[in-house]
Design brief:
Chain lengths: 261, 261
Amino acid sequence: MLVFSEKLKKCVRENGSRVVLALDLSPSVGEKDFKRRLLVKSRRILSEVEEHIVGVKINFQLLLPLGLFDDLRLLIEDVSHYGLPLIMDCKLNDVEHTNEWASRYFFEAGFDALIVNPFVGWKGGLDAVFSVAKDYEKGVILLVYMSHPGAEEGYGQRVVRDEGAVRFQYEVFAEKAKSWGADGVVVGATQPKIIERVFEIVGRKIPIFSPGIGSQGGVIGEAFRAGATYAIVGRSIYQSEDPKRSAKEIKEKINEAMGQF
Amino acid sequence: MLVFSEKLKKCVRENGSRVVLALDLSPSVGEKDFKRRLLVKSRRILSEVEEHIVGVKINFQLLLPLGLFDDLRLLIEDVSHYGLPLIMDCKLNDVEHTNEWASRYFFEAGFDALIVNPFVGWKGGLDAVFSVAKDYEKGVILLVYMSHPGAEEGYGQRVVRDEGAVRFQYEVFAEKAKSWGADGVVVGATQPKIIERVFEIVGRKIPIFSPGIGSQGGVIGEAFRAGATYAIVGRSIYQSEDPKRSAKEIKEKINEAMGQF
């Protein structure tokens, strides 16, 4: 079995893509039989775009209605069939007992990596996630700066370090990604200058996953020029009239941008 | 239908208790038929202790194996049958699209309140949770200081505010609980001095939920003297040989402590 980072690199080579599909479909309010529809629609979109993506990210939008060991299994099997790495984006930020069991359940269910919030700290917190991930040979990705406006309140705040120096929170998190041995970091595409700064800290060895392109206003060229390694794209693909064409176009735009530097 | 805070107060009056049961059961590794066992054991413990508690808190330990709209429904129905408020402790900390749908699913499934991480900020983040909670007349509880040692890294850090003043992160979060209109805050029982400081900020109107008593080292008397309103207790009850007796003893210890000041 390939570990997460190797599986991801293999897909980049095979599919020539840097697009992680965020399968965050939601039903129309009051829609009947919404669970079956969510599953059918998610599987259909995945089958249409699989050759143009490099991984799949799932969050509460599908986890809660479909159930980890219930209907979600069918989608997880599809992702595995296409050979794509699967990321759980529940932004785990709990104490060790919960972190340990959540990680076990997600990895047992077939996820290759988990996104976690470094704000929760190491001892009795994220140490448990990294420890379980090591046992299962899976990946852990740290949130370093999110893509919404309110991210500024926390991720963008200035913090006083032990030695009295004032640093941005995202710089502290990027340093933790290095020292904790994270397999990736998330930095919103809406903040190319922050991507640039995080890239300076983490270097080429830790990939930067960048959500927020398209519907949230992030621009592909800017994010990748700044150091993004992968784009996390949801609505611009799954809400498109032609998801396959949209995935292909985003893939090509990224590759074009990557070719310019 | 009673809103969350009223339902909670009603249970305090009726059960004379300030104990929120954290039903965070985990299976033994490799245990067969573990989903059914988790459900059966959780329902049994709940039925034994229901008269000595004031609410129930559920987290990933049961959500993931049982499934929100699958077997977990039976447990949710039990909690509702006992008239107890039910809290989802998944520490939501996401962007608005995810927050909105996660909140909807949890409230539709029967939860009365959600615990969220204020670090994620308001705009395009937690505003969505508060907005959905308002629509459903449900509660939102903010993490202000967690109970594990690593909490110091984030919740205990010093941050520079706009006006240049240096504050502790938990003070900033306690102020947000007030300005955002939260229905409660979480402060670990392991930090009575921080409970005291948070109580100074939020006052009597916002209850303080305090986890970490017992197995995590928190002391009942110290936490309640400092201003805790409710204790969140898990292992000290569900791992006890006699959960009913343990719940009753913890309830009485809290009431004794509360009577001393």
